[in-house]
Amino acid sequence: MLKATRFVSLLIPAWLLFACGPTETLKEDPAQMLSMQEKRATTEDGGMVAAAHPKAAEAGTEMLNNGGNAYDAAVATAFALAVVEPMMSGLGGSGAITAWDNENNEPAYIDFYAQLGEDPDFELDKDLEEDSDSVTQERIVAVPGFVKGLVDVQEQKGNLDRRDVLQPAIDLARDGFPVHGLLGEVIRDNEDRLTYDDKAAEIFYPDGDPLETGELLIQEALADVLEGIAEEGHSAFYESEFTEEVIEHLQAGDSKLTTDDFANYEVRWRGAMCSSWNDYTVMTAPPPLGGVEVSLALNILDSYDMAGKGVPFKSGEAATILAEALRIARTDRGRWTGDNLFFELPTAGLISTEYAEYRSEIIGEVPDELEPGDPWPFVGDYEPLCEGEGWYDLMAEPEREWTIPDEFLPTEDDIDEQEQNTTHLSVMDAEGNTVSMTNTMGLYFGSGVFKNGVFFNTTNRNVNDRKPNIRVAHRTAHSSTAPTIILDDEEPVLAVGSPGSGRIPPAVISMTMYTLEYGLDPAVAIGLPRMYPFSNSPVLQTEGGFTYQSLQELREFGYDLRPNPSDDRYFGGVHMILRNPGSGLIGAGDPRRDGVVRTTD
After folding, report:
1. CB within 8 Å of 352: residues ≥ 6 apart
2. What share of the chain is helix, strand, coil (3-state, %, to 5)?
3. From 3.30.1850.10, 3.60.20.40, 3.40.605.10, 3.10.20.30, which CATH number describes the 14-270+414-599 domain?
4. Span 52-101, pLDDT tens digits
5. What is the pTM of this model?
C-alpha cells in the first residue's frame, strides 16, 4: 500500500526560516541562550538527533559517531534528558517508541508506560473525586517503565555496550550542568512538589531558595542509580535493594505497590499502528496511547485540499476544517481509549477511511458538546493496510481477564485528560533507521515523590471508573502521547512527536500536514501558531499569530475563541526530522522550549 516517492518543495525564503523567535525564558538566560540556528540543522549523508536539550542531543550524536545506530542514540538521549530535564521525564516515569528498521523494512512500537500494580487501588477514583485527604502523593504513583523499556530496546536493537550508552547521562548527573532557562522557571514554580521530600529540597531548594538559572545542578544519588543500571541492567532498578527502599518509601504514603509489582513489570511490544494519509503510510502509537487521534484527524483532512485553501493561521476556511478534524478526533479517541490487552476496542473502525467520511458529515456546525461517533459498525469491513512482524493487530482479541469489585463497576462517560508534562526526541541515522520517542513524568517532577535521586510519576490517576479506561490490575493507562513516523514507499520521511498532554496529537497532525502537504521547511512548520479544540464545549484555544480574518471566520463558524500568547509551551514542544529526497535530513526544534538539533560529524 506504500506509494511512490513524493518530493517535498522546500523553497522557503531565508527570512522565514527563523521568523519565530526564542521563548522569553531563553531571552532571559544569556549564558544558555540558544540561537535559532541551533533549532534547525541539515545533513546530506549523516545522522541527526532532535531533542529538548543540547547536552542530550549531543549524547545521541556521540553514539552515532561511535558506531551506534538510531536506537543507541535515542536511548542515550533519553537517559541524558532524564538528567538535564528532570521535570519532563525520568527513571521514575514512562514512555513509548515508534521505530523503523530501514535495513529490514520492519516497524516496531514499544510501550513502556507506567502500569498499575496487582492491587490497582480501586478506592483512589472515589477519593480523587471527593478530594479526600487520603489521596497522598505516593498513591498516584504507578510502576514506572522508563528504565526497563530503554534497557530492553537498547539490548535488542542497539549496537553498543550499555555502559557506553549510559555514560553521558552518568557524567551529567555526577559532574552537573548549568540550570537552563526553562528548568529554572519550572523549579521556581513548583516549590510544593520539590520540597515534598527533604532530599529533593536539598538539591533543588538549597538553603530554602530555588536553584537559579546558570547555577550548577549536581545529582549524585541519580548518578549512582544510573551506574547500577549501566553495570547490572534493569534489575538494578526493579529487583534490588534500591527497589526495596523505593517500595518502603511508597508504602509509607499508603501506596499499594509492592516489590513484586516492580519485578513483574512488562515492556509491551505492541506493534506500530498503520493507517494511510495523502499517499503516505502513518506509523503511530496504538491504544491506549494517542495515535488513533492522529490517524482519524489525518483521514478526515485527506478529503480536503488543505494546501489549496491556505495556511490555517491566515485562512479561515482552512482553520475551521482543521479545528473540526481535531475536535472530532479528540472526542472519539477520548470515548474509545483503552488497553487492548484487556478490552475489545473498535480501533479498526476508528482509523478507517469510511469512518472518517462518516464523521466528516457533521462538519458545518459547532455544537456546545460534541458527541462521540460509533465506530463499531465500521470494524467488520476493515481491511488491514499493514500486516506482519512489528505491526499492531487491529483485530486481535483481548488477552487478559480482569475483575473489578461491584461497587467500582464502570460507567459509560467520556474520560478526562490529565495535565501532562513530557518530552519528545526524534532520531534518524545515516542508514535510515528512525526512532520517534516520547517520555513523561505526568506532572512537572511527577508526583514529587523522590527516592535515591529519582522522582516518580503520577500515572495512577490517569485511569478512572469510566469505560474503557477503568482501573484494572497491570493495565496501561491512557495517554495523549503519539510518537509518529511517516513512510513513503517504505522509506521514513518524517519522525515527529511532542509533549503537551491533549495538545500532542494536534501538534503531530499539524506538523505532518505542514511539512508533507504544504511543503514547508520543518523550522517554518514548527513556528506556525497552533490551535486546540475542546470536546465538551465550543471553546477553541488559539496561539498568538492567527490573522484577524482567520479568527473572525472561526468566530462566525461558532467557536468561542480563547487566545494564548505566541510561542506558548502549552501548545507543545515538537522535535522532528524530515528526510527530503536529494537534500538529506532537515531537523527542527521547537522555539517554545529549549529544543535543538545536532548532526553527526
Report:
1. 299, 375, 378, 381, 382
2. 35, 15, 45
3. 3.60.20.40
4. 999 999 999 999 999 999 999 999 999 999 999 999 999 999 999 999 99
5. 0.93
